[in-house]
Structures
1.
Amino acid sequence: MSCKESDTEAVDRRRRWLSILAKAPEARLDLLWQALGPVPAYTILRRPETGLVMLHGRISGNGAPFCAGEMTVTRAAVRLETGEVGFGYVGGRHAHQAEIVAVLDALGQREEWRDRLEAEIVSPLADEAEARHRLIAARAAATKVEFFTVAREAGT
Amino acid sequence: MYVAVKGGETAIAHSLHLIADRRRGDRDLAELTLEQIDQQLGLAVDRVMTEGSCYDRRLAALAIKQARGDLIEAIFLLRAYRTTLPRFGDSEPLDTARMVAERRISAAFKDVPGGQVLGPTYDYTHRLLDFSLAVAADRPEAPTAPADTAHALPHVGDILAREGLLEPPPEATGERPDDLTRHPLSLPADRPLRLQNLARGDEGFLLALGYSTQRGYGNNHPFVGEIRYGHVPVAFIPEELGFAIEIAEIDVTECDMVNQFAGSHDVPPQFTRGYGLAFGHAERKAIAMALVDRALRARELAESADSPAQDEEFVLAHSDNVEASGFVQHLKLPHYVDFQSELVVVRALRAEVEERNRRAAEQAVTLSQAAE
């Protein structure tokens, strides 16, 4: 069952949750969110707002960074009546998703919600992301070159 | 005489209506959706995101629809849109070793760890038109094979760099790289700034310059050390949180080029490198970028720099197709006053010449009469 998180545990968990929730398809996250039923009231601290993040690449993949181009990002912030503040940062212009992520980030800071959200939203989304990656890798693997060498037999 | 004129409002308004009408085309056909453009013209979306320098598939698809498939116009639209958005900050550098790769090949080393994975490539197609695509039909799903997803894909370059055969890339200084969207280009530009310019540069321009190096105008003996394409997470540290989170997963293409070796008294001979990175699947762009990146290092590597691709000012000042297209196409806009002033000058010059010729002819007649 849930127990109180240490500060490090809280950071690790929030980092994982926020990453999984941001990378999930908006429609899928919304479906799981709707299925959750009533959630505590919250106020919007920051309306979903779209802006840009400059993406850094690295020379030859691991050298000095350079500005590779920007991407759109949408952010939101909410506060629960009980005081927890949650943030959502999602790639793209997904205002609704940014708000849901912020609420889930806030709710996850409450012990009585944590396990349920993990089981009903975060874990399923993590599994689905992994399945998507497995499919990409499996299709790529089918295009892997199997080299064979043709050796000329001596004396023929 | 110069007279100020106004006019054309109605003509312009009707022209906009006409372009909207042409954009829609035959009303008996279904209207194109952004999802269709994203899914079925994905490489066009990739190019618009790369040169528009803004990763957002849906915005790029919208730009392509609005520009009726004119990709340079679409790139312009996307660039213009991005100027309306605030900047939230800079990402953590992309870690392409963590890529979920759809394609990864090396043209230099046959036995790379992880193997030669062709992925979706046109390289081995016969470039024959496929008339089966002319009609809608059910298309089969791609085959699969067991895959190892547990291990990160090491960069081919790192393996050779460890042996000292390949120059290591310049190390991070800890300072934030210069950003062209914040400060205008100043020369000489360091390599990170040049790479930003090339990353958003026109594919056709870079392709031609890269080709020119291969044909001998600044040849640097390139081998494709590695090309990889796939999905990488984007990590960002929101100021409110103070720790990094992943905010998206994006597709990128990376090309690490292995080039002509160089050595000196202090450094034993080793291969040099050029680098290319593009949004989406854009190998031609990434390779061309890597060739030009390497060519622009001529001075740093004490090579003679007398070819166009090695001329930093020439390359960096002409690579941007939004600037180029704007300046070339502005010639279509009314230049009535400029032209009028030139007309006056040419008329005056002609009158002067005619006057001189008339006088010379008169003088000749007088002289010949005097001689008689």
2.
Amino acid sequence: MQEYKKIFITKEEIRPTAQRMRDANVHLAMIHGFINDDGKPNVSYEYEVGPTIESYTVDGESVLPTISDIYDLGAEWPERELQELMEIRFEGLDNDERLFMPDTMFEGQGHIMVTPMKELIDKVHNRKEGTE
Amino acid sequence: MSYIVPIGPYHPALEEPVHARLYTDGESITDAKVFIGYNHRGIEKLATQKNFIQTLVLVERVCGICSHSHALCYALALEQIAGMKVPKRGEYIRVIIAELERLHSHYLWLGIALHLIGHDSLFMHSWDDREAIMDILEELTGNRVNYGAVTVGGARRDITDDQRKDILEMLDKIEKSNIALRDILLADKTVALRTQGVGILTTEDAYRIGAVGPQARASNVPVDVRKDAPYSSYDDFDFDIAVWPSCDVFARVVVRVLENVESIKIIRQALENLPKGPINLGTRIPKIPAGETMFRHEAPRGQLCYKVVTDGGETNKRVSIHVPTFKNAPTVPVMLRNNSVADAGLIIASIDPCFSCMDR
């Protein structure tokens, strides 16, 4: 039977945890994120350890280190998704293009109502600087 | 000469909208990018405003092909939070519908792949078999898709003795033709020319990117949630994980045909050993305590994940859905590199993409 185990970690523990899991050949099932009632983000790294999901959760941090260099595209896509859908930024993520619909189509024509990726990132960055 | 070849978001060769950019050097693809999101319907947000039974109806509509998988995975997540024990007969009925869904999904994909390969007689043969499965699903649930077969705490509809006989008859029919289909596919020159050595995803790349489902198994990675983390009585059944070592489009065709054999085996065992007793814990709106979990289900395209958070109220606090296409789509640029533009459609289709699932 499947089990679920939640473990709170700090943002500094994200990369060592990911590296430990990668070294043990553990599959990263997904990175989930949502916004708490107090408006702060909650990001969970869900690792499949046998039949158990070990959910390493970081609470209240809007800027997190990327693990896309450890888990490759398996982490890059979920990080890009979170970066676009919520006010969360992944430092070191080597891809600043949108995943959900590109900023621009050809010959400079863009999708209407699509916020460019740079504006999204600046928004998180400014919010962080404003609160600190 | 270098070109950027755009595909989509709306293109006659695509069943659903997606945008891809192929970077080419003459006929050869040097790189590719994929952009998603054209089918985003805000289903996760909507789920936070619905009660648990309404959400079952909602999540079934994430996808037309694997609708049962979505409802099942969501129900399993809620049952885990609430600590519910689903009656055995209910679990077996859920498995039967899930495997019938896998069969019709694989036959659908085989038909599309064979059409793209240019083998239209096999395409029609494959879809003729699929139609028999769709008829059975309609007989069991009243619908060809969106079956409404799952409720929180079990199954919504029982299987009668007459229906049991009809399913077994249908299985006899498609089992014979599936063997014929397998033999033709393994020996056919047209299929071999279009698929062997095309769209390679090495075992190392499949591990590295985290591919799931038939896409991973066709790269010789033996992963299957039904075996690795059994649920809903899957550990009661004797079946094998179908893998194939050639890592190309051919392997993805073969793996799905072999998986059909395993699904038929599972359905037969479930029907022969169908336990007596209730099929669910009642049909009232369930009371779910505060909690959270992430549940995995082996959908036809691979591992489906539902993360559900509840606060003890009548609605979901949070539902996050991640589908196999989201894990497999990043493999597409890797598979496209060094292939010709003419094979791009077939290679993209070989992951059995579902963009309405991926975009939610």
